[in-house]
UniProtKB/TrEMBL annotation:
Reactions catalysed: Mo-molybdopterin + GTP + H(+) = Mo-molybdopterin guanine dinucleotide + diphosphate
Every MobA-like NTP transferase domain range: 3-161
Protein name: Probable molybdenum cofactor guanylyltransferase
Name of the coding gene: mobA
Record bears the keyword Nucleotidyltransferase: yes
GO cellular component: cytoplasm
Principal subcellular localization: cytoplasm
Originating organism: Halarchaeum nitratireducens
A GO biological-process term: Mo-molybdopterin cofactor biosynthetic process
């Protein structure tokens, strides 16, 4: 199993710092995501902007799996998470990959394995929560996903879910999520307040 961590956003809701490397109880967010994935995955691709690379490489320096950096293509830089997904998926030679945002520190490795099972013989496995897809917490077959992403971007569609309608995707509904994912697996930390709240929860455990 292989994973792509998308980290090229500007973290505008977070404030001045890059949330990818913001510390949650002493560990940078992207390192927490990577550590959660270290069981199931054999390799990691990190998609980010060129300016982020050195700092992210520093926090992942001793990661126990190979890490490849996929920088946003110059003609797609700042074009949003779908372009980041494309850059990341292009850099993997895996047939399928789990794509995840950099700000979900409690991503559940058992659920990631379940998503790979659900994606077998399909072009994707995508969780749906409250009726909305979670394209940055999903497994994709790389080749069809790249085709769909390129077509969406060429058509001016930049949202992370813009490639989904072109894919034969297995929809992972709430009941299956409840059974297979730990509570908090999807919690994403977009603001400093959300990070502080997560830190409080960790301390109270
Ligand atoms: N490569 C790349 N990744 C992006 C881009 N925009 C968002 N992302 C990533 O997509 C994921 C989800 O995006 P958001 O949670 O909205 O992150 P963000 O855009 O940095 O945050 P805000 O500016 O507060 O919306 C995060 O892991 C981001 O790093 C982009 O333009 N390029």
């Amino acid at each position: 199993m292989h994973a792509v961590v998308v980290a090229g956003g500007r973290s505008t809701r977070f404030g001045e710092r890059d949330k990818a490397v913001a510390s949650l109880a002493g560990t940078p967010l992207i390192r927490r995501v990577a550590d959660r994935l270290a069981g199931p995955v054999e390799s990691l691709v990190v998609n980010c902007r060129p300016a982020q690379r050195a700092v992210i490489a520093d926090v992942l320096a001793d990661y126990p799996r190979p890490v490849t950096y996929a920088l946003d293509a110059p003609d797609r830089a700042g074009e949003g998470p779908l372009a980041g997904m494309g850059a990341g998926l292009r850099a993997t030679d895996a047939e399928r990959a789990f794509v995840v945002a950099c700000d979900v520190p409690f991503v559940d490795p058992a659920f990631v394995r379940y998503l790979f099972d659900r994606a077998a013989a399909r072009e994707a496995a995508v969780p749906y929560r409250e009726g909305y897809p979670e394209p940055l917490h999903a497994v994709y077959e790389v080749e069809p996903a790249l085709d769909a992403i390129e077509r969406a971007l060429d058509g001016g569609r930049r949202r992370a879910d813009a490639a989904l309608d072109a894919l034969d995707a297995s929809a992972v509904r709430e009941a299956a999520i409840g059974t297979h994912a730990a509570p908090g697996a999807f919690t994403n930390l977009n603001t400093r307040a959300a990070l502080d709240a997560a830190e409080d929860r960790l301390r109270r455990r």
